[in-house]
């Protein structure tokens, strides 16, 4: 059921419950048979939304006597029932439209449009679980899952991600496709970081595909609603700027601390697996040859990847916990493999290994690289022009250096050396 239908129904329910409460605040309303109070029972039924039972009870009482209060309550309940029935009829009609569109678009191969209507229908269905088990729905989901995997294997990351996102939306963020989404997002992160122009081109091509799909699904209506999409531009510092001053020693230190000092104490093995997986993702992402000239050599990239896969298999076969010396030897193997194949800069190897290791920890753990630290310092030590103060960090406390004359902070009486808590 959509938010629109839910909100309307919930509002009607609240209004009716409030009306009943107001009516019951007058003279005591008693049962005709034993003179006991009706109010507690009526309130309980109203607050729980049991308006059918409430109406039946009021009709029983009305049949035995005439009472204006009961008549008013019954009229309100009957009006609610009518509105609820009307709303349900509209919802079910909307559901059928969405369901029929979904089935037609699935049969025609317009899978994105089919999924959008499947999502709409699922929110309108009487029973979402039953809807998700429907034969046509499961058939569409199977098609979309296959398309998502096919797009991933072809390197069509945006198409793959859009398919997985619609599956997530249909199943209401049930995390069924978390691993697949993470894999796709890793490739997109690599492109955004090292080859933004290639990613911009991918966005442009995907926009054309979606426009063609909409045109096929909507026909002439698509032309009326058609607007030119703004090309996506990826801005920000270059990867060289972001990775400046990163060294392999930083990764080794990060690995050691994460293995022993993180709350989960994962040890070296899973962290190293994540590190290797990050480099495999890099090797499997086309379009990086502009950033890394050696990636033009397919043989070198293949040897690099094959070496990483061997290291990964060795880690899979590790039975006992690794110590720092053993972990360090594996890192040396990876560094030598890089030096003898694709010759990625040290900054790139260290960064990818570090972020890969961090991906094996919880969602709130990440590596703070020199660039990140510098950005944090700029934020802390800079000027807040909207408020009108310049601050710095002294003895671990945010401290006002000076308020700027004529600003809100100055007018509010903030002075130098005030502490920000």
Keywords:
421 residues; mainly alpha; four-stranded antiparallel beta sheet; 19 helices
Quick synopsis:
The protein has 421 residues and is mainly alpha-helical. The protein has 19 helices and 4 strands.
Structure description:
This protein has 19 helices and four strands. With 421 residues, the chain is mainly alpha-helical. A four-stranded antiparallel β-sheet has the order 1-2-3-4. Helix 14 (268-283) packs across helix 17. Mean pLDDT is 83; it is low at 1-8.
Give the SSE map.
Elements lengths: L2 H21 L15 H9 L3 H14 L3 H41 L2 H14 L3 H5 L2 H19 L3 H14 L7 H17 L1 H23 L1 H6 L13 H4 L5 H14 L6 H16 L14 H19 L7 H16 L6 H13 L11 H12 L1 E2 L4 E6 L2 E7 L4 H4 L7 E2 L1
Antiparallel strand pairs: 1-2, 2-3, 3-4
What is the molecular shape?
extended
Query: What's the rounded overall pLDDT mean?
Result: 83
Q: Please give the count of helices.
A: 19
- Biggest sheet details: 4 strands, antiparallel
- The gyration radius over C-alpha positions equals 32 Å
Tally of DSSP β-strands: 4
By secondary-structure content and strand pairing, the structural class works out as mainly alpha
The fraction of residues in strands falls at under 5%
Amount of helix: 55-70%
Order of helices and strands: HHHHHHHHHHHHHHHHHHEEEHE
Strand order of the largest sheet: 1-2-3-4
N-to-C span: 45 Å
Query: Uncertain segments of ≥5 residues (pLDDT<50)?
Result: 1-8
């Amino acid at each position: 059921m959509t938010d629109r239908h839910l909100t309307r129904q919930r509002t009607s329910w609240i209004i009716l419950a409030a009306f009943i409460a107001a009516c019951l605040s007058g003279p005591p309303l008693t049962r005709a048979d034993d003179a006991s109070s009706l109010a507690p029972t009526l309130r309980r039924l109203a607050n729980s939304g049991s308006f059918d039972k409430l109406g039946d009870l009021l009709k029983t009482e009305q049949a035995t006597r005439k009472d204006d209060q009961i008549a008013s309550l019954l009229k309100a309940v009957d009006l609610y029932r009518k509105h609820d029935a009307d709303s349900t009829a509209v919802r079910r009609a909307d559901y059928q439209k969405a369901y029929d569109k979904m089935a037609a678009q699935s049969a025609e191969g317009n899978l994105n449009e089919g999924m959008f209507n499947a999502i709409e229908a699922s929110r309108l269905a009487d029973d979402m679980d039953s809807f998700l088990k429907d034969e046509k729905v499961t058939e569409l989901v199977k098609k979309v899952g296959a398309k998502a995997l096919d797009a991933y294997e072809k390197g069509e990351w945006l198409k793959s991600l859009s398919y997985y996102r619609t599956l997530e939306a249909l199943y209401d963020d049930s995390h069924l496709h978390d691993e697949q989404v993470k894999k796709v997002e890793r490739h997109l992160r690599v492109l955004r970081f090292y080859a933004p122009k290639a990613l911009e081109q991918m966005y442009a091509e995907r926009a054309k595909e979606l426009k063609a799909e909409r045109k096929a699904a909507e026909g002439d209506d698509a032309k009326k609603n058609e607007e030119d999409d703004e090309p996506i531009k990826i801005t920000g510092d270059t990867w060289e700027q972001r990775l400046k001053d990163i060294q392999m020693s930083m990764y080794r230190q990060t690995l050691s601390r994460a293995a022993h000092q993180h709350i989960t104490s994962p040890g070296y093995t899973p962290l190293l697996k994540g590190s290797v997986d990050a480099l495999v993702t890099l090797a499997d992402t086309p379009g990086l040859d502009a950033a890394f000239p050696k990636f033009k050599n397919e043989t070198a990239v293949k040897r690099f990847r094959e070496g990483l896969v061997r290291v990964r298999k060795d880690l899979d076969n590790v039975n006992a916990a690794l110590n720092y010396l053993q972990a360090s030897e594996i890192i040396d193997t990876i560094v030598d493999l890089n030096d003898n194949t694709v010759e990625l800069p040290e900054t790139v190897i260290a960064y990818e290994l570090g972020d890969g290791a961090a991906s094996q920890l919880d969602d709130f753990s990440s590596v703070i690289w020199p660039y990140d630290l510098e950005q944090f310092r700029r934020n802390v030590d800079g000027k807040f022009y909207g408020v009108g103060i310049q601050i710095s960090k002294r003895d671990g406390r945010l401290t006002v250096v000076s308020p700027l004359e004529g600003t809100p902070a100055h007018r509010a009486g903030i002075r130098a050396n005030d502490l920000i808590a």
